[in-house]
Amino acid sequence: MIRLLLYLIVILLAIPDVSWGQEYVVGSISGPQGKLIGANVFWKSSNKGSISNEVGNFKIKFNGPDSLCFRYIGYKSICVWVPKPSTVNIKLKESAITTDEVVITGAKSDLTRGTQMSTQTMSLQQIEELPSFLGEVDILKSIQLLPGVQSAGEGNSGFYVRGGGPDQNLILLDKAPVYNASHLLGLFSIFNHQAIGDPTLIKGGMPARFGNRLASVLEIPTKNGNFNKHEFGGGIGLVASRLYASGPILKDKVSYLITGRRTYIDALAAPFIPDDSQAKGSAYYFYDLNAQISAKLSDNDQVKVGFYLGDDVFKFLNKGSDISLRIPWGNLVLQGIYNRKFSNKLNADFYAYYDQYQFALQSQFDQFVIGVSSEINDYSLGSDWTFLPNSNHLVKFGVQLSRNKYLPSFAEASSGETDFDTGEKNYLHSNQYAAYIQDEWIISPIFTVNIGLRYSLFQHLGPYIRYDQRGENELPIIRRFGKGYIIKTYDGLEPRLAAKYSLTENSALKASFTQNYQYLHLASISPVSLPTDIWIPSTSRIKPQNGQQYALGYFHELSAIQSQFSIETYYKSMKNLVEYKDNVNPEDNLNDNVDNQLIQGKGYSYGVEFYFKKKAGKFNGWIGYTWSRTRRIFEELNEGRSFPAKYDRTHDLSLAATYQASKKWTFGANFVFGTGNAISLPTTRYFSFLDGRVLGVYKDRNSFRMPNYHRFDISATLRPKKNENRKYQSWWVFSLYNVYSRQNPYFLYFDAEGTLGSNDLKLTAKQVSLFPILPSVTWNFAF
């Protein structure tokens, strides 16, 4: 594979530079916190422009002599005179907090400029002005407002993309993946918006540099600290408070950024629980902490070292029955990234990270104690290279090596001084290797392709204990594999292809094909994503997931009204998806392997997405609509017939908007509507004298629908008049969640009325809803 990559690089180096008669201005854009991604670059006279790429570089056709302007939200815009094709390196300065109208003109976005499709980058500034749940800005809930993305449930920050499961989303904090991105059982995400930059979601046409997921990539960059001045700020809301600090350690050389957030639900509730209450001492809280040091070693060398720690802790006490329960879970991420600019044509990132996710449940009843735990440890090294051999090629290539250690689930129990035999901790060890290369090739002024190839290899390694189950009353055959023994190997090639055909200067057709392998699975019994879900890698019995996606779209820039429109259609097929067998519980795997409880099947999804976005002006926002179908097929389920996935949603509509009414007031609103989730309900009920209980007769799996989901939220941001002589600033955010108090379904259950003996037993399906109208207020400050 390495030899193949070298051959491809040599071929690309030999490609001649065909500039189609055009000369260019090239350069870089940065700010006090480092490179600026997605900054707008445009000629003042014609408004024709470009944007900076992921390393802060830009290239624009020479249109001069003319003034070349640079603009980025939150920074002071500037224009420089460019008399001839040349290199221009720009450093923008941050602007003070302002409520002046934000107008972005002349910036032709990647919507029609590049081959990338099915991709949206969301402005963090706009996310902060949209209504938020209980005052907590949440990028994962904002992602759910995009077409092709469905929410995991009422108030939940989990999401599903184009028919894929929650495990098929690659969520990256810089370079490191995050396995559980939620606090409070999914009601909040773990990402403090004061620590991150603009998030980017890729739903299709996944570039070759990403792998090990089938559905999507969510890139969440962390901010660098300010290299020039110290900044402090935070916010106080109804359920949580946050603080941040940023500034130079060595001016223009080394900076720091520290952010922290913690809920005080436990502290607020404690005074209202009587001392004689059986639940006295019960509590819940979560916290997260981000810290980062960034250093500019030279004009060509930059380093940043980042740290994230976040935990949820739930404690329940019942003094009257001697019952106690403690459930902690959380993430730890340590990573370092070294960026080296070898020349104007070659740039590289070298990175290393350690990623850990842990879940535990510890319960006690009298002297009986039981504990359940799961764990993921991920150690990775890698490098990503960017090479511009000429003006018509942008080549990216890289490698990654990972060492993983999983504990899907482990139970232990004791009573007094007696420990029960629940077996050994049976870790699953694996190695993963990946190499990729891709080339964005401008074949002609109207036709561009992105050709990519990724190779991935997975090894399941010892030490490991394999339980081969036999008959119901027979003991299993136990096989032990030694440390480093290669139990099973999987590998595969993952071709990627994307193409763009320009119809006019402002419109284009795009198409893409991706093939992906995923060596990690998430097994869940619950209808919503919970920390108790089990992560398990591929084994000798669980094959890796693989999928193919085809997408076609039309994209149009409406320059006159500073808007954009797109329509995309897609078809996705998936194999080796995972489900639990019928009548199986995760706790059944004592002296057994988790994969003995799982089955594999296939699925497919197809749909059409419409997206309209107004990018600038006092009134801006977007409308997204998706029509889709998602089906699953398992031989052992539903008699082998296809059935809707639980998150299949035929219609999904989202509207999000912000309006700057004055220099003080900005209003936000969003409305969502979605077809009800698919569920399984019994068609009839009968009393079993053998079991002594009422049993149900079920039709096809997931053949019923919950009521349709819809909700309307509003917000208002008040920024007092700015005082240029005062460094201290503060502002208020007010919001109403679920304005008309829609009783949206969270789950359904059956309630029995009457008695069987009197022959008037009646079973009625009832709905549980979580949130009525919820007001919130948050006070923010900065100095």
Main traits of this protein?
783 residues; mainly beta; Immunoglobulin-like; Maltoporin, Chain A; 2 domains; 51 strands; globular; transmembrane beta strand; transmembrane; cell outer membrane
Topology:
Layout: H1 2-14, E1 24-31, E2 34-35, E3 40-43, E4 49-51, E5 57-61, E6 66-71, E7 78-82, E8 87-91, H2 110-113, E9 119-121, H3 124-129, H4 139-143, E10 149-151, E11 159-161, E12 169-173, E13 176-177, E14 182-183, E15 188-189, E16 200-202, E17 216-220, E18 231-236, E19 240-250, E20 254-263, H5 265-269, E21 283-298, E22 301-318, E23 323-341, E24 346-365, E25 368-390, E26 393-415, E27 418-419, E28 428-444, E29 447-461, E30 464-468, E31 477-481, E32 486-504, E33 507-518, E34 520-523, E35 534-537, E36 545-558, E37 563-580, E38 598-614, E39 619-633, E40 643-644, E41 651-660, E42 665-674, E43 678-679, E44 682-688, E45 693-698, E46 704-705, E47 709-718, E48 729-737, E49 747-753, E50 762-768, E51 774-782
Parallel strand pairs: 1-8, 12-17
Antiparallel strand pairs: 1-2, 1-5, 3-4, 3-6, 6-7, 9-16, 10-11, 12-13, 14-15, 16-17, 18-19, 18-51, 19-20, 20-21, 21-22, 22-23, 23-24, 24-25, 25-26, 26-27, 26-28, 28-29, 29-32, 30-31, 32-33, 33-36, 34-35, 36-37, 37-38, 38-39, 39-40, 39-41, 41-42, 42-47, 43-46, 44-45, 47-48, 48-51, 49-50
Family: Belongs to the TonB-dependent receptor family.
Domain TonB-dependent receptor plug: 115-213
GO cellular component, one term: cell outer membrane
